[in-house]
Write a structure and sequence with these properties.
Helix content: 25-40%
Distance between the termini: 63 Å
Structural class: alpha/beta
Number of helices: 15
Number of strands: 23
CATH architecture of the largest domain: 2-Layer Sandwich
CATH superfamily of the largest domain: ATPase, nucleotide binding domain
Strand order of the largest sheet: 12-11-10-13-17-18-19
Oligomer: single chain
Number of domains: 4
Shape: globular
CATH topology of the largest domain: Nucleotidyltransferase, domain 5
Strand content: 25-35%
Length: 505
């Protein structure tokens, strides 16, 4: 049997791999720091009974935010080296930091133009990551999407409340009179930075989610959610202990593979000796040859076998939650089966909003197979949750209407005609598209890196596209074709003009 990889050997390996990109500082036996001009990485070693837990944590000096966090059990040399290299890559990339764009505005834009020029000169001298532009207040809404901060002059301070209400996702500030009147560039930069820090703090506080689990569910549960976009991947996990959040963490990495998921479970089990259940939510479930498969790491894995193997290994139940509102909307002769036939601990959520075109009615069902572990308890918990959350209880009239429509079939041919028309039309115009295999959305690659610019150009031609970054897919836009055939057909001339803007046709 191979000898287990030890923390002392790993520490020596780290110290021997110092490069010009970072400086290594060993604070004590349990912590090593990698320092750069843009941020630092901390590596913590925690000894537990069964081994050592290693924690990687990267904090940016720019915004003091965590850019990378991961912890894992140290037991394999190659695995530890791979994770370390990924962390270092993220640390080095911090120097390609985002420029904070600030839009200054006054009544005409003249005074703020002079001030913006002065500010840009100062930040260049100081090496700060800001860029200032000026605009008249009448043009704020035309320019606002491309900026992080909106800074208005005292002369138009009466607009502050209105701008904050209409731009809730932007930081809107009024520059102090003394700073503006004195052209105090240093004071302006300090003022903006303080407000940004406060804004980010308040935003984080608002994002804190309270646990609303059933009061009667006296169990300890590990809940894991995976998400990914073009920039980074994340594993969110929480440990619920009798309605209280015992622990929670976000794993942030540039890539994601199956071992990262197992590392989370292994590490939690080292810290928490008893878990009643482990619940996992994974995007992108696919099936083939009677196997339940997923592509969370860029290649297919036999998810059924993996989950069953891990259930035996951990001695805990692993529930697969399958969200299936589009199950009937599939094309090209494909058929979607219930995942319960592949993996018994599957919980299926379904909504009639898509199949019967009832968006907003909040009516559907949850399937808990009899074969699932603790099926009766799961059903009781779901029933109580449904009663508690009143807004998801459909009115009796809608319930009766749906009961009469259960045998109705979705007219897939209608959506298929729209799908084909839109996909063929856009690809002929030079756009790169992902042909849908289900649902009624078409993903189009933006011709420019910033899809927001692409969306705004589309608006000028009365084309409404949704930013892919809203779904964790930056660089793309989403089009919905659950509209009339005429609407799809009439949109193509506008898309042709849009293609000409970007030199596609």
């Amino acid at each position: 049997m191979d000898e287990k990889y030890t923390s002392s050997v790993f520490k020596e390996w780290i110290k021997n791999h110092e490069t010009k990109d970072y400086q290594i500082i060993e604070n004590n036996q349990d912590c090593i720091e990698l320092n750069t001009d843009y941020g630092k990485a901390e590596i913590h070693f925690t000894d537990v009974t069964e081994g050592t837990i290693v924690e990687f944590n990267i904090v940016s000096y720019k915004d003091q935010e965590v850019k990378f966090y991961l912890h894992f059990e140290l037991n394999d040399e190659d695995h530890a080296h791979q994770l370390y290299d990924e962390m270092v890559e993220t640390l080095i990339e911090l120097k390609n930091k985002k420029i904070l764009k600030v839009l200054l505005s006054c009544s005409s834009g003249l005074t703020t133009s002079m001030f913006a020029s002065n500010l840009n000169s100062v930040v260049e001298m100081l090496g700060e990551d800001y860029h200032f532009e000026a605009v008249a207040y009448t043009n704020i809404y035309e320019e606002v999407e491309n900026y992080d901060v909106i800074l208005i002059a005292p002369q138009i301070g009466y607009l502050l409340k209105r701008l904050k209400e209409s731009l809730p996702d932007k930081l809107v500030l009024q520059i102090p009179t003394a700073i503006f009147a004195g052209y105090d560039a240093i004071g302006a930069i300090k003022f903006i930075q303080n407000e940004i820090d406060q804004f980010q703090k308040e935003k984080k506080e608002k994002q804190e989610i309270k646990c609303h689990c059933c009061k009667h569910y006296n169990r300890r549960v590990l809940s894991i959610v995976l998400s990914a976009n073009r920039a980074q991947t994340r594993i969110y996990y929480r440990i619920y202990d009798n309605n209280d959040i015992m622990d929670q963490q976000i794993i942030i990495k540039p890539t994601l593979n199956t071992n990262d998921l197992y590392d989370v479970i292994d590490t939690v089990l080292l810290k928490v000796k008893h878990l009643d259940a482990i619940a996992i939510a994974i995007p992108g479930i696919i099936k083939g040859n009677d196997h339940l498969r997923s592509s969370i790491d860029g290649k297919d894995i036999d998810l059924k076998n993996e989950l069953e193997k891990k259930q035996k290994e951990f001695g805990h139940d692993i529930y697969l939650v399958s969200d299936e509102p589009y199950r009937e909307l599939v094309y090209d002769g494909n058929k979607e089966d219930f995942l319960t036939k592949y993996y018994k601990n599957t919980i299926v959520g379904y909504s009639f909003s898509k199949s019967l075109s009832l968006p907003g009615e909040r009516i559907g069902y949850v399937v808990v197979p009899n074969e699932a572990s603790d099926a009766e308890e799961l059903i009781r918990g779901i029933e109580i949750s449904n009663r508690t959350l009143g807004f998801v209880n459909a009115p009796s009239l809608i319930q009766k209407a749906v009961a009469r429509c259960l045998d109705e079939k979705t007219d897939v041919s209608f959506y298929d005609e729209n799908r084909t028309m839109l996909y063929d039309g856009l690809t002929e115009l030079g756009f790169t598209c992902i042909k849908p295999e289900g649902a009624f959305y078409l993903w189009v690659k933006s011709p420019v890196d910033n899809e927001e610019e692409f969306v705004e150009e589309g608006k000028k031609l009365h084309l409404l596209m949704v930013k892919g970054s809203a779904f964790g897919c930056g660089g793309f836009v989403r089009l919905a074709y659950c509209v009339s055939h005429e609407t799809v057909k009439n949109s193509l001339p506008a898309f042709e003009k849009l293609a000409q803007v970007y030199g596609l046709k």
